[in-house]
Write a structure and sequence with these properties.
This protein has about 200 residues and is of the alpha+beta class. Helices cover about 25% and strands about 25% of the residues.
């Protein structure tokens, strides 16, 4: 059972020391990296317990597991729990995101291979992860020749291509960052078509 960094970022959940990402128990040195640059293919398979600091740490609708001072445990939506620390035996001491619930949300599938054609205009990325635009001038056995004359080699796996997104697709991607997790791409597309932009 696992979820991925894309889901966590959409829900505002930060990874902490002790979470297991890509099979590795992460430390404070790598938490900043994953919280800032984690990708959909970075899989989280276990969450460490986090201390309750007295404030609700995530959105109302995020499923969490909790431990109380009186040793009671539970699970439910973050908005259903009292996060205030009153100094009583029922105080919530520790929490962590509910992996089972987040696993159901993580429906990210790998991007299909794009059939690149000569003369086609694409966005491309090399191993540095920076995306640029290009026109494919030729496709040889060893790589792709771009309009600037450079060859990107296939066998090194150093280049990825994707179609150039329309303004509509870009707007939908922006909406997904703030939309409820159960909002579908079609719903947001309907909003865009109706004239909504913010």
């Amino acid at each position: 059972m696992h979820t991925n960094m894309k889901v966590l970022q959409e829900l505002g959940i930060k990874v902490v020391d002790g979470d297991i990402i890509n099979g590795v128990n992460i430390t404070s040195k790598s938490t900043e990296f994953y919280n800032e640059l984690g990708e959909a293919y970075d899989f989280v398979s276990e969450f460490a317990w986090r201390d309750n600091d007295g404030d609700q740490p995530v959105g109302e609708d995020v499923a969490v597991e909790i431990k109380c001072k009186n040793k009671l445990t539970g699970a439910g939506l973050a908005g259903d729990w009292d996060w205030f620390k009153a100094g009583v035996s029922g105080d919530l001491l520790k929490w962590r995101p509910c992996l089972k619930s987040l696993t159901e949300v993580a429906t990210v599938t790998p991007e299909p291979k794009l059939p690149v054609v000569i003369g086609g205009e694409y966005e491309f990325s090399c191993s540095d992860g920076i995306w640029g635009r290009c026109i494919i001038m030729d496709i040889g056995q060893v790589g792709y020749v771009l309009q600037d004359g450079f060859t990107k080699f296939k066998e090194k796996g150093e280049v990825k291509f994707r179609t150039i997104k329309s303004d509509r697709d870009i707007a939908i991607d922006e909406m997904r960052k703030v939309a409820p997790i159960n909002a579908t791409r079609d719903m947001m597309g309907n909003l865009y078509d109706a004239g909504y932009r913010k």
